[in-house]
């Protein structure tokens, strides 16, 4: 009995699939799925732009710096090198500099920048939006004060 039910279910599924396939016959992938998520652009892309928020107040009171950012006209992706310049829409990543240090790091996660362990006092963070070859496209610098431990405002 169970075998007949299983076979019957399989045959009904196959029949439904055939009927669905007949309705789709002659339609292109774009007709069924819509436009491709990544497609060549017909016009030049507008300039990439970086928007950076001030550190979140709650974590900052506890000494943790959470900086949210977003990019316009660029997707943050972990893809690097000159061939990645051909990707449309444009892709890139960020570089982060803390307190004008001569070193920085690159990040392609798209997640907030989180800093812990900065000493109490004034600091600044520069976030640079970069293309896949690390060429800067836009940047923003934010200044903030990490309060002394135990200090609440």
Automatic annotation (TrEMBL):
<protein>
    <recommendedName>
        <fullName>DUF4399 domain-containing protein</fullName>
    </recommendedName>
</protein>
<keyword id="KW-0732">Signal</keyword>
<dbReference type="Pfam" id="PF19625">
    <property type="entry name" value="DUF6130"/>
</dbReference>
<dbReference type="InterPro" id="IPR046133">
    <property type="entry name" value="DUF6130"/>
</dbReference>
<feature type="signal peptide">
    <location>
        <begin position="1"/>
        <end position="21"/>
    </location>
</feature>
């Amino acid at each position: 009995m169970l075998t007949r039910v299983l076979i019957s279910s399989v045959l009904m599924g196959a029949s439904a699939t055939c009927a669905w396939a007949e309705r789709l016959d002659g339609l292109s992938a774009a007709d069924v799925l819509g436009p491709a998520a990544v497609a060549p652009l017909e016009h030049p892309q507008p300039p990439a732009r970086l928007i950076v928020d001030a550190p979140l107040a709650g974590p900052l009171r506890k000494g943790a710096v959470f900086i949210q950012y977003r990019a316009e006209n660029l997707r943050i992706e972990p893809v690097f090198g000159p061939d990645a310049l051909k990707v449309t829409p444009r892709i890139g990543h960020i570089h982060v500099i803390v307190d004008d240090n001569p070193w920085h790091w690159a990040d392609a996660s798209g997640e907030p920048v989180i800093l812990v362990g900065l000493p109490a006092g004034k600091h600044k963070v520069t976030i640079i939006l970069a293309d896949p070859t690390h060429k800067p496209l836009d940047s923003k610098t934010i200044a903030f004060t990490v309060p002394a431990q135990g200090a609440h405002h």
